[in-house]
Every structure is written in structure tokens, then in C-alpha cells.
Amino acid sequence: MAQSGEDSKEEFNRVKTFMLAMDWFNLSAEKKKKYLKDKRLSQNEKVILECSLLIRENKFQEIEDRLIKMVIHHPLIEAQRCFVLAISLNSSSRSHNAVEFFIRSKKIFHQYNLNRFEFNTLIQLFYCYLNLKQKFKVLSLLDELEAFKLESVVDEISLERCRFNGMV
After folding, report:
1. Would you call 137 exposed, middle or buried from its count of C-beta atoms within 10 A (0-12, 13-18, 19+)?
2. CA 115, CA 8: separation in Å to the nearest integer?
3. Rounded distance, CA 122 to CA 103, Å?
4. How much is the pTM?
5. Residue 70: how many other CB atoms lie within 10 Å
6. Residue 102: its pLDDT value, please?
């Protein structure tokens, strides 16, 4: 069920600091680490943020151990948990396990009209399907990505990379 604009905005505002900290492509690792000291973040939010930093260190098993059984009640925090977990699984050559978490994350971001987060999730899911050699799903996702209004040069480059990889 889609959120009304007001409900969606209110839910986002409850976790705004966390969502800003989870901006994968506009924050350096140092800036993300500063958020770990922010008292506005819950313990679960800090764990998810820490795990997003562990991806750079290839600590995939640690990420999975910390996130797989975590119970989250706020949908946007759950979406980020799923996103980080899926990236970790895909990066550790377990793409088949990552798909369900990317899809769960994408659905929540779509429900809350968080287009940039949804776009980034679809980009990652694209590479997951590419790893799995699921050509039909790769092409289908490419069509879905083409429908997005791109917000930055980084988005344009990401889409171009997908176009290139989708041709292979």
C-alpha cells in the first residue's frame, strides 16, 4: 500500500539523519563515520551504518552475521538493512541470496517515493542479475532504470554503465 505524501514525509523525517548518513554516493567514509557519534541515531541505525562501511573492507561475513537476524520495525531502516545486506551478499559471490533483499529494499523505497534510493537499489540489482547471467531480468531492469528521472551526473554514468553491460 502506498503512503500518502504527508505520511511518507513524516516517516522519512523520523529517520532523516540516518537516511542522510546512508547516502552511498555523496558521502566519504570519513563523513559517514562522523554520523556514528550522532546521538539521534538508534543502535540499529548505527549497526547498519557500520556495516555499510565494512563493505569497503570486504568483511562480508561480519556484515551478514550482524544484519541477517536484526529485527527492524521502521520500514525505511529495514530498507537500508536489506540494501546493505544485499550488497554484501552480492559482493561475496552470493548473488542468488542477494536478490530477495534488493527486491524488499526496492519495494519500500518505491512505497515512500524515495526515487534516488530506489534507483540505486535497482542499479545494484542489475549487477546482481548480471552476475547470475539472467539476461531477461537484466534487460527488464534496464527498461525500468530508463524510466527514472536522473538527478546527477553520477546517475547518468551509472545508467550508461548498465546500458553497456546489458549489451554483453
Report:
1. middle
2. 13
3. 8
4. 0.89
5. 14
6. 98
Distances (CA, A) of 94 to 52, 54, 155: 17, 17, 25
CB 23 within 8 A of CB 80: no
Q: SS3 letters for the chain?
A: CCCCHHHHHHHHHHCHHHHHHCCCCCCCHHHHHHHCCCCCCCHHHHHHHHHHHHHHHCCHHHHHHHHCCCCCCCHHHHHHHHHHHHHHHHHCCCHHHHHHHHHHHHHHHHHCCCHHHHHHHHHHHHHHHHHCCCHHHHHHHHHHHHCCCCCCHHHHHHHHHHHHHHHC
pLDDT at 17: 83
Amino acid occupying residue 42: S
Is 98 in contact with 133 (CB distance < 8 Å)?
no
pLDDT digits (tens, 9 = 90+) for 1-22: 455 556 566 666 678 888 888 8
Q: Is the pLDDT of residue 52 over 80?
A: yes
Cβ(101)–Cβ(89) below 8 Å: yes
d(Cα 96, Cα 86) in Å, to the nearest integer? Answer: 10
Cell numbers for 141, please give them: 531492469
